[in-house]
## 1
Amino acid sequence: MPLPSLTPSKSEQIAHTLRQLILGQSFAVGEQLPGERVLGERFATTRITVKDALQRLEAEGLIYSAGRRGWFVTPPRLTYDPARHHHFHHWIKSEAREASTTLLGCEQQLADGDLCHWMSVAPLTPLLAIRRLRAIDGRAVLHVTHHLLARRFIGIEQEDLTSSLTTLYAERFGIIQGASRLEIEATAARGEVARSLMLAEGSQVLRIRRLNFDGQGQLIDSDTEHWRPDAIRIQLSVPAPCTAQP
């Protein structure tokens, strides 16, 4: 049986060259790489081979695709603790970056099977679904959907839903957020999530689902975050365990 070749493929060689240029800062953060056709000419190969090399670097988080605009060097990841109640815009500003939020939609919805199970609500419970897209330095990195108990937030559709919902809950409805429960998993980007984050259908994203409760332990809402995996690293703060007193 012949041994597998140890010689790097053409796409591996291209990926290695571009990787060294990126890590050596020959291409700056946010800078656009030469187009696939140009790279094909420079490396004397096909666009298919170039595309394979670029997708290798994308999987490593070094570059990202902006659709027809081309390929760009990925900004540094932000450290994110999903157990903390972040004000997105304040958090990003504290990192000397620029944040923006776009409202994608706000619709009434009846709780279905998955939401009933996750939120522990009865079937057909009236909910409000608020869908938002959040960007850092102009790059869409987070799609988030909030499912609110409609009876607790009458008239919220008239408010500015691009601002902090936690602050809005407190100031407009007198509801102060307390404890949360989290679920974190890798999943596939589908439909609006894939399109809004400019990812190919089925690309991997990081999903963070959070149930939020008020100070009395009553459910406020559920939010489901879909993050580009190259945008953040997860860091959790864990309190010291309680020790028994002698």
## 2
Amino acid sequence: MKLLALDTAANLCSVAVFDVETGVVLASNSEDIGKGHAERLMGAIEQTLQGAAVELIDISRIAVSVGPGSFTGVRVGVSTARGFALVLKCPVIGISTLQALAFDGARAFPGRPVLSIIDARRDEVYAQFYGKDGAAISKPLVTDLPAILDELAGRDMVLSGSGALLVNEGRDKPFDVATTAATGSIEAFARLGAAGEPPAEAPKPLYLRGLDVKPQQGFVMQRKVTE
């Protein structure tokens, strides 16, 4: 089974073709374009399919980033994935950028709890805690940096995402960092999409805030879950 993975949630326009049976990335393409995903995505898909020697009709599953991230970028990726899924009559799996970053964090530091954290601007971050087993132990949310720093006090966490730079700024003993990217690797999206169960409904963008929504306060992690 061949899987097509798409990520346009941040600055990258990333595509991969993944062989689910062998667990091998057949081809991938990742370009830092900042904006303009709508104009570049189809070309990147065509180039990646050619590199994998795979036709679009050979794709039997799609994985796509649902955010959080750029409003426009997320919408481009999700709408493209859903359109292909209708034509190909195949399932599409939505993967959050925070989940993909946690995957990358766990791969870099096996057996360690991970905080996926993305710089959301406006003195806010997107964040989600993951336990040692890779399972989420908090909901994805947007909050301010002081709330995250309070939760991290006395904890041994691996940071994964662009928000790691904010957390470690000025610290005498910085946290270990898996990546400072604003999104996960395209391989992470592919592998998570291959492992995920097809949902009953098509994925929707994960927007943690509106244009004028204030950050959540009183952030509390689900401590009863084993880390």
